[in-house]
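ok so I'm stuck.
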Amino acid sequence: WLIRGAPSSSVITEPHFAILSLVAMAPCYLTLFFGTAAFLGSALPVQRGLAQVEAVSLDFDGDLDDASCLLQVSTQARQVVDTRAGNKLVADAGEARSSLAAAADATSGAAVAAAPDPTLTESALALVGSTFGIKAEEWVRVATSTQARLAFVIPALLLMPLLAFTLFLFSRSAGLPRPLAPLKAEFLGTFVLVFTVGCCTMSEAGAWNPTAIACALMVMTYALGPISGAHFNPAVSLALALVGEHPWLDVWKYWVMQFAGGASASMAVSAFFAPRNLALAPVAPFLGCHAAFAEMIYTFMLCFVFLNCAASKRNNSPNDGNQFFGLAIGFVMIAGGHAVGGISGAAFNPAVAVALDIKHLGLGWGIWYTLFELIGAGAAAVLYGVLRPDEIWSAPEFAGYVPMLNLRCASEFVGTFMLVITVCLNLVCGSSATAWSAAAALMCMTYALGGVSGAHFNPAVTAAIVASGRGICTAKDGAMYVMSQTMAAICAALVSALFLVASENKEKPFGVQPGPGYSFVAAGFSEFFFTAVLAYVFLAVATTKAPTSQVTRQKFYDALAIGSCVTAGGFAIGALSGGELNPAVAGGISMMGCMGSYANAPSMFYLISFCALELAGGLVASLVFKITHAQEGSTEDAPASMLARLNCEFVGTFVLVFTVCCCVMSGSGTWNATAIASVLMAMIYATGPVSGGNLNPAVSLALGLTGDMTFPEVAKYWAAQFLAGAAAGSTACVLFAPHSPKLGPVAPFSWFHACVAEVFYTFMLCFVVLNCAISKRNNPKLDGNQFYALAIGFVYIAGGYAAGGISGAALNPAMAIGLDMKHLGFNWGIVWALFQFFGATVAAAAYLVVRPDERMAAEAFRGYAPTLRTRCIAEFLGVFMLVMSVGLNLTSNSLATAWSAGATLMCMIYSIGNVSGAHFNPAVTLAVVSAGRGNCPPKEGLMYAATQMVAGLVAGLLCAIFHAAGPNRGKSLAPGPRSGYSPVTAGLVEMFFTFVLAYVVLAVATTKAPESWRTKHRFHLGLSIASCMTAGGFAIGGISGGALNPAIALGIATESFHWGSLLTYILWQASGALLAGVCFRITHPEEFKGPSEDESKVETTTF
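replied:
not stuck anymore, here's the structure
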């Protein structure tokens, strides 16, 4: 009313509008503030009293056993109080001491038992009662009373409309001058990042924390990059200013918003998790100098990758921008998070460091970390200027620039150094995810420096490229590259040794050698084989001509495919041989071991032997490449011969099945599915341009049924695939003798459950292949997509974690036969294969239903638009598979539910995003409807939401069959707060991450594509949306369950027939969706301009 009542001639600036909005809403916020303060105020004295209780118990000067007993009593008392509310402290410190003395007398001489004694719990209740003046029965009454529950729910229901209305007022300034739009984006992005870090720290997601944080950074980079550049980090802003890519006058503005966003998120996390607080400090036994140095190294890496991937003109031509920048920037957190998370905590960001140190106002370890992080940013800017001198050249000089050999060698040194030090520091800290961290480091540095030196970072890869000929790398240049890589490994070993001598593992021997229980032959062959795979994939994706259908010169997937080989090999044979796959890495680890403890120096025989075998693997890879990619040696673009195609199918299937066998026999249970998905993705990228990259008889059958392959071709492909599967299985049996891979139902599930699981996920695999790799809509002749292998590979993450604990998740008849070679495939192998073929048949039918245009004539195809019925079928399929994945993960006690669910969401978005829009979530549909612009009219939104909820219900009922037979039968899976958290805390975090998911969908899927993109395909679309699920699921899975989707909440509630807080959860999630729609209007006002709007009037428009 104030704005509309203003004279039309007056100009109301955005700051004025913000002040008016806050003044108008002040009474509402004051009411909420004092109400919340009164509600929490009754509990705060209890917390202070318990602090006194613990202090007294620690200072108690009685016997040690008595003091220990008192400490355990006070700890249990705190646990009781933490889960209750509304009591008054009536005792001072003196009364607390008296109560403790009495309790000590009663328990004098009692030893503290390993398991809590029920009588001790009663003592804890009695102690709390005597200290705080309340009976034990009152605790139970307060906890179970309806009034207590309503006290949580009612404020939440009041808060949501108020927040939404306030954001709506801000959104009405869309037509006003927008100088604050980038600053708002920086605040929002930093808030989301720090809030995710805080939730991960508090909920203790463990090994998945760096992945969750990396996903949060990646998605916000993609969502807000077009607005502010997506710094979210004062160090990044400084680095950009130092290289002239960001105005110095804007640096302080960005810093203010970044620190403000971080501090706000930190206070929110502290409020949610009170009395626990965020903390920042070196991780014992490391000292402050170790932590600061670690922060400097990886802040350098983060800023260096940002400059090269997001700021470099070479990687971001005005007419051909890349889409991998967010992926590369985000995955630095995986590389550094696992490498130095056990040293410094892995902030790499002054805003994060200060936020985590909010208890000391950032003046504790926060300021120390910040200083070294800014030094790392300065180093990144200097090195960027050295390695990319062309960035400041004029256009004619820039166009003809070729890096000199010295710069290319320097590039190889930097990339190899970061790779080797990442591996070494993972080993120093005892990380269980070394391969994942190393792969992320390799991928990030390949994206950053691939345009400078080719990004070999591996003597074996250099040897393969030199041996493959074609003039890509001469022998002289190759020798210089190997020298640079060797020197980088030595320097990385020297630095890593400084950390090793201070670690708990300093007496542990480090070096390349066979794992316990494995022979030198087995370990040596494994290193040889997976190094050959890495070198082969490098040759196939980084040194070949781009497909004629690829309109962009940027290969968005090359570094992803190369890094995935390290993930696959590292996890598959890490326990067998170490999984270095790189002579520089092997040498760096051994040298670090020598420097850390000379008495435990590694064997030089193993080091020399492994390095020789890795180099031999590179040479063999060049030979295989010449066989499978013979067309690369000719100047003509002739199609590959049938022999070359069959060779590719054999090689790809052999590598896939052998990797699976190694994972089964010696891999990591937590990471096996990720390793298998990685190798499948890499081999599809490597062989796809030649043979199509089927690597699976079920996929070939589906292609035959849809008419995309002739059945004689299918028969030939089957022969190559089954032969490769049998050969790989036989090789594994020999290598691991007397043990061999096994295939069959996983107890306590029966063969029926296992076969049904194989049908579902073979269906999903074939359906994704058809939609992503075959569909003409996703692969026009002049604009093929680059995400097809990413989507196909990640089906194994979806199904591997969901069905791996039920059937083993083969999803491939050739794999089933290979795993069952002990029985020549005639035990469970043939049974699995039959059900997998059935899944392929259903996939072909579903594909033709959702894409009837694939059989239309050219003119009808161009004018086709999916009907509402077709779109609803697509939504049903997507939600069904998503809820099935979540439900089966929960049924089989998977530790990677969020990772599996995110992979399912990504695969289905890539598959049918251009059919229905791929909402797969009533909250997302609500956000899209509320954001307007005609993307989804309310009527269609209602149909979408109804379809999604029905799909969730059906999937829940099917999951109930598995749940009734699984290890968790009888256990409720209903949505609700996890142990130790209140409904309000669970609801708020659920709302927040649903908001993030819906907001990212709006920002990356419903906005105009940048003009610099040549391709109409969005490589990052499914990846960024699905990563919201991964980030939120891991960050708050231990708090609220992390559903972020009403259909998922309904499905998992139906699975155990216990609906619990389902309706409350749906309300929280819907609130998050509405907030996303409003916030999107604030940060993306240009999306709401009419096509005929005069841009010159934007600066003076009033309401």
